Amino acid sequence: MRRLLVLLAGAGAALAVVAVVATRRSTAPSGRLERLVRSTIGLPSGPLGWVTARRMEADHRPIYPMMATELDLQPDDDLLDVGCGAAGLLASQATHVRYVAGLDASGIQVSLARRRLAERIDEGTAEIVLGDATTLPWEDGRFSVVTAYGCLEFVPDPLRALSEMYRVLRPGGRAVLTLGLATDDASTSGTKNRWGFTAWTAADGRRLLEEAGFADVSISPPPTRYFTLQLARGTKPASVPVPGPVPAGDSVSPA
């Protein structure tokens, strides 16, 4: 048993290296490689999935403070993390936030996340849901902040997922998320490399968020050596006030 665990740990470390290499190469698609990356990094499953899920959380730790700075989390925020993994961001950077929720499509990640946030879940200030990023199980305007790290790169329909994030964001809310690999090649924008990672140009990434409804969109290149995915930001416009009835006796001047 001990030997098996050592072998699995070694395999997990090797796959972590593969993930870094994968995000920096842009060769022709390969179904076998894409399935390997998806089953270990994109959607951890099986015995190896438990190893890679824990390994990813450790590898992502340097990123969480940077994401928190971008999110500018406040005590009265309600935060949703789509593709939350083992809840590393929620547990380490959002302890002061009023309410946190996470969604992941991996049963392994959901199990780890629920274990990590067990106390907050019992208190009613957190929830972790097994689900699909393209059909979020929350009502319109539920959250003030939405984030996603390393999620859209594996979602079959990123526009639909972004539209769902926009839907559950309340007016005036903000989103900070990763949007695939950066590329300057317009001919490959929106396509996957052989490892299954999607790349977008900054212009296409901006159009994607705007098509989902976001305003004030900005796209940045990877800011640190730990960060290989470009960073996207956007807001949901505040509601436009509806004019009230004109008081009796008042007149409205023609335009």
Average of per-residue pLDDT values: 79
Spatial order of the strands in the main sheet? 3-2-1-4-5-10-9
The whole-angstrom Rg is: 20 Å
Which geometry do the CA atoms define? globular
What is the gist of this entry?
The chain has 255 residues and is an alpha/beta fold.
Could you characterize what this model shows?
The chain is an alpha/beta fold. The chain has a domain at 60-235: Vaccinia Virus protein VP39 (Rossmann fold). It is built from nine helices and ten strands. The chain has helices at residues 2-22, 31-42, 46-60, 64-71, 88-93, 107-116, 118-123, 158-168, 202-212; strands at residues 78-82, 99-104, 126-130, 143-148, 169-178, 181-182, 191-192, 198-200, 215-220, 231-235. The longest helix is centred in the N-terminal third of the chain and has 21 residues, at 2-22. It is globular and about 50 Å long.
